[in-house]
Prior knowledge:
CATH class of the largest domain: Alpha Beta
Strand content: 15-25%
Structural class: alpha/beta
Order of helices and strands: EHEHEHEEHEEHEHHEHHHH
Amino acid sequence: MNHEYQPLITLGIPTYNRAGTTLPLTLQSALAQTYENLQVIVCDNCSQDATEAIVGGCDDDRVEYIRHTENIGANDNFNACVDHARGEYFLLLHDDDEIDKDFVQVCVDATRVAPGVGLVRTGIRMIDGGGNTILEWENRLQTTSFDGLIRGWILSDTTLFCANTLIRSDALREIGGFRSRCDLFQDVLAHVRIAARYGYVNVREVKASFRDHDQNRGSAARIDDWCKDSLQLRDTIYELLPDNKTREELVRDVTIFLCQINYSYIINLKSPLQKLSLYRRINRYFDGAFPAGAYYRLYDLAPRVRKWKKGIKKFFENTSNL
């Protein structure tokens, strides 16, 4: 490991009312880093719980606490972390996510092969409310090209999350921080803009965790906003891709991928009529890139049929043993 290059790294934790749940775990993972030259910013979006006491109880002068006098909205709170960052690199660490104790050191070491790179990206795991691992995704990319990143994302060779992505701070400020049309795909939009301009470096190993729960899933009530942000992301990728013979094909695949993501946000709706209406709406946004009927049959109806068949089979097996 290179212990001569020790830049200041900022870990920004935007938080709201999670003092009694996940904030202490997130903060602990930040302060437990083997890499010590850290600035840990906690931006409190006017929480009504014990957030100030939790942060104030940290006996560590690397921690800086900023409390807003009113709720400024989640995305503005993300960017407040960026505004106060002094580090050469920045990590947006949501208050329900965690990083492994060597995450920062591994990322800093990775920049040795690409000084000034825009992003350092590791693998990531999904955890449940109790911190148990549900799934893991290694960062399997073996390229550092922009089109390779986009292709790897839609093929699930890599992921685009905040918790596993260290970002060059000046590059993030140069693009205006985390911003998108509806502030839903703002993180991915920032990542692709910086990757296209400044490049990225890959770390294969899983070094970060994001927590899966209802509050961080797409909302059917905002499906129009999700679609609008998706199309902005698609159009931005198109503008950033090299103008070559594979450009149109890759953007077509991105469109299909984003269309399917938006379908997935409504798959658990209880009302068939509401679900049908939203399937059709998404289909119109994406000009039928992936037909709603095909998605319904493959990912909605087929799993339920398999579940019914399994239940019927189990029923007859049980009755035959009577």
